[in-house]
Design goal:
Layout lengths: L1 E7 L2 E7 L3 H21 L10 E2 L14 E2 L2 E2 L1 E2 L2 E4 L2 E4 L5 H21 L8 H17 L2 H4 L6 H19 L7 H8 L4 H15 L33 E3 L4 H7 L2 E10 L2 E10 L2 E10 L5 H19 L3 E6 L2 H8 L5 H15 L3 E7 L6 H16 L11 H19 L16 H17 L1
Parallel strand pairs: 3-6, 9-14, 10-13, 13-14
Antiparallel strand pairs: 1-2, 4-5, 7-8, 10-11, 11-12
Helix pairs in contact: 2-3, 2-5, 3-5, 5-6, 6-14, 7-13, 9-10, 9-11, 10-11, 13-14
């Protein structure tokens, strides 16, 4: 007997799976009684009359389990709504798709009142509204109902929503075909976008993808890895310009400069350790080509803080020209490298070592920064060692999925085109336009 429990705020979802109705009835009532008993012991009252039950089965003939909680019978419904997702007994999700499409159409009608033919909202603004409002509205919880987009009825509903926006963006006549309007507007079909988002969700949860191979996807660290907000010490970094650099450098005899680089499709990072006016050590770090400069900058910062903790020096200054990486560390980003860097900073503070972070301008003629910039480029171009950090960024996964989506869209209209004389039309005009436009989209993606 399989039992799944998920709690969110004041809502609790229980899922029971069994071979017979009697098996589900016995186990479900046992769990419900245990929950009711726990609530009474902890002075928490549940509402059985507000509890809804949904039965999903493929059997044509079946018994209905009788459920009760606190001697109150729990009623069955043909569909229930959980956190904005409408689930029906047949798991068709037709009601949910209809609801989100109605919301999107209502918002489109409000938009259409403002966007007229000769005045109103510009195509760029309409596109922004579509991407920022309409798509998220429809694709909410799409990982749960994505398989239903293969049905023609669902695709027609989605096409109805998308058609109006595509025509507004490209300012086409109402008689233009849906495919041509979407191509001119630069919009992907909603059903393919839904599948793309659901695949991305699955990859983030550990589902393999053929294009990724054995690469491990980078996942954000859980909040529990950081200390409680009440126990967190304020982190920050200083801003150093050309005028104040000499004073800061004199006050920090031991300094570490960090940098990351991506050049010719290759990625590297580097550290330059200085004592006084001389460089004492240079460290090059290798990353695979699919990594980003942001990851390289964070990796360099993490290694610099760890090196500062192991150096035994009481006061170390770490200088970086990546403000985004410094903000990720000091503002509590869940990026795994940022979390590890904060942990190293807390360890240094517990050892009564002062490790200060500073932001300096890039290419401002500062010796340490120019030196580490050269080292990072050398690490990117010349390193043949095993990568020091090889987690695959989500941006790389999105790029692969987008290429798959465009390829699938192209295959839908991969029909032969028959050459005709000037008095005849080519066969399947939409297919020709679609094929040409997908080639343009691929060029933009590359």
């Amino acid at each position: 007997m399989k039992v799944f429990c998920q709690a969110f705020a004041d809502d609790i979802v229980l899922v029971f799976e069994g071979d017979t109705a009697l098996e589900i009835e016995i186990e479900a009532n046992r769990v419900l009684n245990a929950i009711d008993k726990w609530g009474k012991e902890n002075k928490l009252k549940f509402a059985p009359h507000k509890t809804c039950a949904l039965l999903s089965t493929r059997r044509l003939k079946y018994d209905v389990p009788r459920l009760a909680m606190g001697n109150v019978e729990i009623k069955y419904f043909s569909q229930i709504k959980i956190l904005g997702l409408t689930i029906d007994s047949g798991l068709t999700f037709n009601a949910h798709v209809g609801t989100v499409c109605q919301k999107a159409i209502a918002r489109y009608k409000l938009l259409a009142r403002a966007a007229r033919v000769g005045w109103g909202l510009s195509p760029d603004i309409i596109r922004t509204i579509y991407v920022a409002v309409i798509e998220p509205t429809i694709m909410y919880a799409s990982a749960a109902w994505a398989p239903t987009v293969e049905k023609m009825g669902v695709q027609k509903r989605l096409n109805t929503v998308q058609r109006g926006f595509a025509q507004k963006i490209c300012r086409a006549y109402r008689t233009v075909s849906l495919n041509s309007a979407m191509l001119l507007a630069g919009l992907l079909p909603l059903d393919l976008r839904i599948l793309e988002v659901s695949r991305l969700y699955g990859i983030k949860k550990g589902v393999s993808h053929p294009a990724l191979g054995d690469r491990e996807v980078e996942r954000m660290a859980p909040a529990i890895e950081d200390p409680h907000p009440a126990e967190q010490e304020g982190l920050g970094f200083g801003l150093v310009d050309e005028d104040s650099y000499s004073d800061v450098a004199n006050s920090h005899v031991h300094r570490i400069y960090t940098d990351g680089s991506k050049i010719e499709g290759r990625v590297g990072a580097a550290l330059s350790v200085w004592e006084g006016e001389a460089e004492t050590k240079a460290v090059k770090l290798a990353l695979p080509p699919y990594c980003t400069v942001y990851q390289a900058e964070l990796l360099a910062l993490q290694r610099a803080v760890i090196r500062a903790c192991k150096s035994g020096v009481a006061k170390v200054g770490i200088f970086s020209d990546s403000r985004s990486a410094l903000q990720a560390v000091t503002l509590g980003s869940p990026h795994p490298l940022a979390v590890q860097t904060r942990a190293a900073l807390r360890k240094a503070a517990s050892q009564r070592r002062e490790v200060a972070l500073f932001w300096i301008k890039a290419h401002a003629g500062l010796r340490g920064n120019e030196r580490v910039d050269q080292l990072a480029k050398e690490a990117a171009l010349g390193s043949k060692r095993k990568p020091d950090y090889d987690l695959c960024p989500v941006s790389f996964v999105k790029r692969i999925l987008r290429q798959d989506t465009i390829g699938e869209w192209d295959r839908r209209y991969d029909y032969p085109v028959i050459q005709c004389d000037t008095k005849e039309m080519t066969k399947n005009e939409d297919a020709t336009v679609a094929h040409i436009a997908t080639l343009i989209l691929r060029r933009k993606q590359s």
